[in-house]
Amino acid sequence: MGVFVSTDDPGPAGHEQVVFCQDRRSGLKAIIGIYSTALGPALGGTRFYPYASEEAALADVLDLSRGMAYKNALAGLDLGGGKAVIWGDPDQVKSEALLRAYGRFVQSLAGRYYTACDVGTYVADMDVIARETRYVTGRSLEHGGAGDSSVLTAWGVFQGMRAAAEHVWGSPSLRGRRVGVAGLGKVGRHLTGHLVDDGAEVVATDVDSRALEWARTNHPGVALVADAAALVAADIDVYAPCALGGALNDETVPALRARVVAGAANNQLAHPGIEKLLADRGILYAPDYVVNAGGVIQVADEIEGFNFDRAKLRATRIFDTTRQILRLADDEGVPPAVAADRLAERRMADVGRLRAIHLG
Ligand SMILES: NC(=O)c1ccc[n+]([C@@H]2O[C@H](COP(=O)([O-])OP(=O)(O)OC[C@H]3O[C@@H](n4cnc5c(N)ncnc54)[C@H](O)[C@@H]3O)[C@@H](O)[C@H]2O)c1
């Protein structure tokens, strides 16, 4: 994996910029990846993770920053795609000095990259980073931030699921449908609430007993099963992966009984080709990065001055985007994941090219 690998690729242009940042005293080792600024400044979170090697950290940031360009394009945002990784164990090395050193590197990019939370970084960390840079979102409500992004992530997933239901059953309502939620974390809990309100029957699982206790207390009608494998094999209409990536793989797809997959987890397809396996089995897959964009919509709103109602309205449009992608997939005879990529690339090209118009 290298930075310049895709230069002979006739499609997307490859990464614009990759920045290595180091501050030995605090222990900061970070890589900021900017895939595209065709639609505006790159936005994407900072993952703080103990990678096995520098190569693994680089591979992750290249992959994640590319994904953000596609997600932000389809979310209708005037933002490009970027992401950052901090290489290290957050429990061991995270400190005020390290986060502020990182913030100074973000600031040095002068607005080409906006950061946000990701695995290993939290709202409180963004508040610290914000002491050194203006280019940070996902701050706390007290600091004018958007707060916990799982609220609109779940709302967007619910909208994407409704669009998929309409495509398959003719009505967006989930009333009476059995929906399997794998992972009752921040997003899974909000999603469960929306589903119950809509009249769906929820079947769920989690590896954490506290999450199961939350379900028993707050939604006694939710049926709990032992693990994700049991959920996949259960008699469900919709499967919503809301835990880790790779939920759709060579074992789970052949066993899956649901007609629709729509969930919050990033990178649900374990490897290329799984989208085709799903299509061959007649399972409609609402692409993860389309339906889980509510979180980035929520934090991106901070750039204008956070307004929850405006951000919610934008996240509600995930219904229309999902519907458009599913129709395009049918029209072009490709799986929805391929249609989504095409639509994102089209917007990046069509809107991004307008910068060539000289403004005088
Ligand atoms: N929070 C957001 O705004 C946001 C935005 C976009 C995408 N996502 C993605 O959505 C997913 C959920 O995010 P979250 O913020 O709710 O995370 P979270 O950590 O709050 O919740 C994840 C839950 O999954 C459970 N889990 C882990 N492994 C499991 C397994 N094998 N089987 C069943 N349950 C398991 C955990 O115990 C936890 O309760 C993640 O993949 C995340 O990357 C989140």
Quick summary of this structure?
The chain is α/β, with parallel strands linked by helices and 360 residues long.
What does it look like?
By secondary structure, the chain is α/β, with parallel strands linked by helices. It has 15 helices and 12 strands. Strands 1, 2, 3, 4, 5 and 6 form a 6-stranded mixed β-sheet that branches. Helix 5 runs parallel beside helix 13. The longest helix has 21 residues, at 54-74. The protein starts with 16 loop residues before the first strand and ends in an 8-residue tail after the last helix. Nicotinamide-adenine-dinucleotide binds next to helix 5 and helix 6.
Could you give the distance between the termini? 41 Å
Give the H and E element order.
Answer: EEEEHEHHEHHEHEHEHEHEHEHHHHH
What proportion of the residues form beta strands (DSSP E)?
5-15%
Bound molecules: nicotinamide-adenine-dinucleotide
Helix content: 40-55%
Low-confidence stretches: 7-11
**Mean pLDDT reading:** 95
Task: Supply the key terms.
360 residues, alpha/beta, six-stranded mixed sheet, six-stranded parallel sheet, 15 helices, 12 strands, 14% strand, globular, binds nicotinamide-adenine-dinucleotide
